[in-house]
Each structure stands twice: as structure tokens, then as C-alpha cells.
Design goal:
By secondary structure, this protein is of the alpha/beta class. It has a domain of 124 residues: Rossmann fold, CATH 3.40.50. 36% of the residues lie in helices and 30% in strands. It is built from five helices and five strands; from the N terminus they run H-E-H-E-H-H-E-E-E-H. Strands 2-1-3-4-5 form a five-stranded mixed sheet, sandwiched between helices. Helix 2 packs parallel to helix 5 and helix 3 packs antiparallel against helix 4. The protein is elongated, with a radius of gyration of 25 Å. The protein starts with a helix and ends in a 6-residue tail after the last helix.
């Protein structure tokens, strides 16, 4: 009986001597998702939907989205200082934003125009004259810059479509899908 107690005590001492650290074996990499809405039509839900695309590509525990307004303020300042339009930003500008924030990944979405309206058909193709159709206009400049590879991808989205209302895709969704394609391309993931 005494031996069993000593063995159990020795086992607890051995286990107690092991350090139980919760340190991560990897470095957290902050991701700056920056939305510059020049259209004035983006809602909070649109912002969260677009940010979710970046979060799905750059997920915890390796990456963490910065959830403050600070990256946007710094990006606006740097872009204004560069004097270039958001459709013609260069890698150097995104490098400055990444260094200033600091972030390991910068996802910059500049929404220039986002509009949906109902229009009447003039009788072209398979639509009868007077049919009610939906016109969707989406214009956005998208950039993804990753410090690790010093790689930048950009996409100029210019979408104009007039389609039947039930099969029309909203401008928000069009921007979301194009942003998803861009971040997946940066991470060499399958396009869905």
C-alpha cells in the first residue's frame, strides 16, 4: 500500500514539474481590412459582408483582423499624400500603409459606385417593351498586399448589367464575390 502511495505521489510530482505554457508556436499576423466608400451607399452590413471575405482567407489563429478605424485613417492620409487616384495605386503606397498600421496583410477596397435601380425595357432581345428590369452598377478598386511575399494583387471591377429582377445579382454581392476571388488568388486557393 505504501508503494502505491509513493508511486502516485511520484507521478504527481513528475507531472507537476512539467511547465504548462500556453504560448503559441507561431506569430500572430494582423490584417488590415480598409473600406473607402466614395459612393456613400455602403451600409454596415455591406462592410461586415466584405470584411468576412478577408476574414475567411486570413483566419485565426495565424491572422487577426484589426477591428479599429485606425487603418482606414492612416490609409486615407497616405493615399492623399501620394496624390494618385485609388484606381492607380502602386505597391509602394500599400507598403507604406502596411508599415504605418502595422499589418502583415492589407486588404483595401475602394467602392466608387454602387447602385441599383429599376428601368423599363425598350423591347430588345427577349424582353417585351415596358418590362420592368433591374440595372446594377458596381465600380470598385480592390487591392491585396502581403508583406511576407512582398506581393500585391489588384482588381478593377467595372460592372454594368440590366437583367430581369429575379435573376439579377445585387451590387453588394458582385463586389463581395470579386473580393473573395482576389484574396483566394493571393493565397493560391481554389476559386469558388
Amino acid at each position: 500500500m505504501k508503494r502505491i502511495v509513493l508511486l502516485v505521489l511520484a507521478a504527481f510530482l513528475c507531472l507537476g514539474g512539467l511547465e504548462s505554457r500556453t504560448e503559441a508556436a507561431f506569430e500572430y499576423k494582423p490584417v488590415a481590412f480598409i473600406l473607402l466608400d466614395y459612393s456613400g451607399n455602403a451600409s454596415k452590413d455591406d462592410f461586415l459582408s466584405w470584411r468576412e471575405q478577408a476574414r475567411q482567407a486570413y483566419y485565426v489563429p495565424y491572422y487577426e483582423i484589426i477591428k479599429t478605424y485606425e487603418p482606414t485613417e492612416k490609409a486615407l492620409k497616405i493615399i492623399a499624400e501620394s496624390g494618385t487616384r485609388t484606381s492607380k495605386l502602386e505597391k509602394a503606397t500599400l507598403q507604406k500603409i502596411a508599415a504605418e498600421v502595422p499589418a502583415k496583410v492589407v486588404v483595401l477596397l475602394c467602392v466608387n459606385q454602387m447602385d441599383e435601380r429599376l428601368v423599363h425595357s425598350r423591347g430588345f432581345y427577349w424582353h417585351d417593351e415596358g418590362d420592368l428590369l433591374q440595372q446594377v452598377i458596381a465600380s470598385a478598386d480592390m487591392y491585396v498586399y502581403k508583406v511576407e511575399n512582398d506581393r500585391m494583387l489588384k482588381n478593377k471591377l467595372r460592372h454594368f448589367e440590366i437583367e430581369d429582377i429575379p435573376i439579377s445579382t445585387s451590387a453588394t454581392e458582385i463586389i463581395k464575390y470579386e473580393l473573395r476571388k482576389l484574396v483566394n488568388k493571393m493565397e493560391n486557393r481554389e476559386q469558388i
